[in-house]
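I had to read the description of the data format several times before I understood it. The format is easy to grasp once an entry is in front of the reader. For illustration, here is how one protein appears when written out as sequence plus structure tokens:
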Amino acid sequence: MHSFGKRKLALGSLFFFLGLCFGSWASRIPDIQSNFDLSEGELGSLLLCLPFGSLIGLPIAGWLVHQYGSKVVITIGGIFYAVSLALVGWSPSPWVLVPILVFFGLLGNVMNIAVNTQAIALEDDVGKSIIATFHGLWSSAGFVGAGVGAGMILLSLNPAIHFSIIMGFSVLVLLTARPFIVKEKNTHAGGGLIIKKPDDLLLRVGMISFLGMMCEGCMFDWSGVYFKKVVMADPSWVITGYVVFMGAMSSGRFLSDLLTRKIGKIKIIRFSGFLIFTGLAIAVLFPTFWVSTFAFLLVGFGVAAIVPMSYSIAGRSRLYSPGVALALVSTIAFFGFLIGPPLIGFIADIFNLQVSFALIALNGLGIMILSSYRKEVFEVNTQKLS
């Protein structure tokens, strides 16, 4: 059996690889829109390919992980995921890009379930919570991916070359980490993804995650476009909003455990909603470069703790095992992440991007209300957290 340190490092590198691939894709969305001369509505339709692929991948991922184990799924699925990213860059037309994005979204969900299955198994072995750290690494990788994307733009390298370089690096990470990924024990007789009706607590936590993930997905896909079309930033600085958002979200996740011990999860979730609402409102009302940059920083800190805190509360459910509770909450949250980006495009096509971002700002108010109303629902599930 490999040591905890080596297993944690290997699994962390896989979370980093997934975040790097997604961050690389997000950093070049404005270029892909320009290359194919897409309107906001057309781009929104194109972005629907990822959620469609992810929805297809949801039951497939559960079955694959249960049938073959997460180690096999990570090894094979990871290579295909890296290759599909490169194919996105090499697509010669939107019609070719559509099925590739569907495949990219499908594989992303397969890998997400596989690596989180590994994380839960590792938690069981060491007896302490470590998932938040892995999610922080995913966010850090997105930040790095944005920075690399900015560098590629400055070097005038097109998305095809950019994504091919990321593919090569990702395959190297996979091959290096594979020997330290263990085969988890099957503890459930059912299929790989267990679906049950959530109770009041999990439904509440799931809705908070849904609103947070919707905001997160919108910021991933539309930050660059917002800085290009609304802020009117210089082309070499278009990616600034995305970089600042990812940096704040990444650092916020690494700090969330420390803050939890000081003020508690409920207060963190409520304050996170306030930051999301305030940041997006400022960006909409004052769309200048420096003000919007600061606003996106606030949104990044606001989004940071929502999912880790929600998962941590759900994992203490008295009605369901941690794995089942996390599956229920993450499934609800996942839909927010998927529908947010295309919704932005459709609303922007009818009105404009500022109206779209103003509506997403209301998610922050929703999080504040859900975490404030009947707080006692959360109390039992937060008493044992540390």
